Amino acid sequence: MEDIIKENNYPNTCPYCGEKINPKKLAETKLNEWGGKETFEGIFTCNNKKCNRTFTTLYEHSFFPTYTIERNSNIIYHPKLKIFNEEIEKIFEKFCKIYNQSFIAEENQLEEIAGIGYRKAFEFLLKDYLIHNRENEEEKAEIISNTSLTYLINKYINNNKLKEIAEKCAWLGNDHGHYLVKHTEQDLEDLKNILDIIIHFIEMDLGFKKYSKIQKK
Q1: Domain ranges for the chain
Q2: How far apart are the C-alpha atoms of 213 and 90, rounded to whole Å?
């Protein structure tokens, strides 16, 4: 019998090590057939020499009205989490935790949950960043904790570039938590990309403040 699962349908990420791969297919098996569709399971081996583990992927094979096959789901065991800068992990611990929980949801094809998770991660990152910049002002820290994100962006962010990109992150994040989506040309990947820009800005700001204390001797 001719193979149903062709090479261009092979998974490109290992569910164990999380690396990009070109796996070797060991076998495929038909699980069921119903309503003009067949479900197949492919068995693959990771070609990352540090991993070499075997995993399975589910496929849906349609032959009505047209002949198609697509990867239905990649069974995720231990997705590779995002590793943040040491200072980011130390200062913004809750943000890192929420971000990676959202990433796990996304890797398990739970995009609807992942989107609002990234939005929550952004709020924790921004509020903790603003509080960190005012760590000796307890009253302002309490105000920041209890104030809406939009107001904080307009009131407490002085850098115009950060303010602009933070506004856009809030817009896209809110789309993942509301019934109506306003920014239909952007998706989850755009939200993550903007969030990465904000993370890099904060990394640079923390680094500048750290090394600006060096005095000439």
Answers
A1: 7-74, 86-211
A2: 20
